[in-house]
Amino acid sequence: MSIEKVTIPSISSSKMGKEFYTVLSVELGNTTIKSIIITTNIKTNKSYELNKCVDLTRNVDNPGDSEEVFGHTIWNKPLSGQVIEKAVSRIIKKSLSEVGLDVSDLDFVVRSTGVVALSSLSYHMDVIIKSLSNGCLNAGIKPSQMMAPFSINNIPEHIRKSSFFNNIKFDGSIVGVASPKKTGVVSNEMESQLVTAGIKLASKSSTVDYRNPVISIDMGTTLAGEVVDDSKPYGKLVCNYIGLAGGISDIILRGCDVIEDNMSTIDIANNQNNIQFNEDILHKHTIKLHEFIDIMKVPKNLDEFGQVIDLTLQKQENINIIGSRINNSKKLITTFNNITQDYTNSEILLQIDDMYAYFIKRLIDQTSKLNIIQPKTTLGITGRAGITGYKPYFIEKYLNNSFDNILFTPDGLALGALMMARCMNSLGTPINPVGGSRGGMCIMQQRIKLSKKR
Question: Which InterPro entries match (predicted)?
Fold first, then answer.
């Protein structure tokens, strides 16, 4: 089993030529707000990071007295349209100014959010998306920089020769995965699609061929991800992941008074480089903790699971849903507190790393029970609760050669937003494709043939 960690290399704007396609991705999450500027050399299909700004969602302004609070994040941070607009506009301007760029240097801007995974906010999707858009407009972004092109002339001139727009227009499919027949199957559906696309893009900076069939797992505050088969020309979504992920450790550490009530694991400094540990003891404690964490196929009679799901249309699609939730938060916190009462911060985080590695194992075990994992499936993991610390090391131990390759990468959602922008502009790279099947050829001609039939 090959394990590979990949990060997007950085580049100076002065080294970019006409063959570069530059996208700003702004993301509103339960824990962080990110503005990431990424550029791709369309000829080589290699991507580079120009800048990344991260703010904590808990630090955004509170709504004013005259503002309507339409919902809260998972950590009870009140949100209004105006609050989102201000936060988005501010971080976009900051990310551009830090590297001396202007909005005119951007070819496209994509907005995404993880907070709509919350059942209490999924019904306010339109409000959130509108607020994200208004924040972009307030930062100087033009509407044309956020819209799919209506003709080849709407695509930036310097990149038109690389576009297949006149052959095939955007049909909703992102990086070789078919668009769902219906939207709203689960409230984090778009987030999961983008994560898969983002890991596929990141793989181009690795030696791993992360193309269909794939499993993507986003271990952010909430759990997202999906299982995609190897159907042709587009892979089909056969399973969604939902529930709590990084939020579980945040709840534990708050309950144990390791962190304050508005903090998360990202606030804990640690030094795990030279820490000594006994894997058997760690695993023994992990098993105790997982008694209070459910990871299972979500029953179809539920409309909420792990705080983060809307299942109103689940019965209309033949898609499996596997979820995670805490079944007894009081016992989980008490057990963790008893285990770690004499631990240092590094030892506490080490126990959390093992807990999450076993979380991934259980997630894969549940998926395997459904008989939907095809041979040669590649696993991709992103998010703070899946890639930091010793988690990759423990994950490799727990999965024990279940996959030929496992890819770890940060910022999967933001990278996926970049890929969606490329797909919307029909910017394919036949010589080094992101879509298609593992080890296979570019599927562009198959897509064009299918498009003509439609």
Answer: Methan_mark_14
User: Which residue matches tokens 């080849």?
Assistant: 152
pTM of the complete model: 0.91
Q: What is the pLDDT of residues 46-86, one digit of tens each?
A: 889 999 999 999 999 999 999 988 878 877 888 899 999 99
In the chain the domains, ranked by start, together with CATH numbers, are 193-413 (3.30.420.40)
